[in-house]
Amino acid sequence: MTDLVIRALTPSDAALFTTFQDNPYVGRAAFGHAYTSTADGGEYRPDWS
């Protein structure tokens, strides 16, 4: 087993949060917020994660 690795998310990781089957019903998507980076016009900042 490998050791636990903690790293900051990158803009390419945003797809992990938009491919959930129930995406429109959980998290910020439930309130109409798209999970996109600030570079793409969204509110998500990978450097803050």
Automatic annotation (TrEMBL):
It comes from the Bacteria. The keyword Transferase applies. GO terms for molecular function: transferase activity. This is GNAT family N-acetyltransferase. Keywords: Transferase. It comes from Streptomyces sp. SID7499.
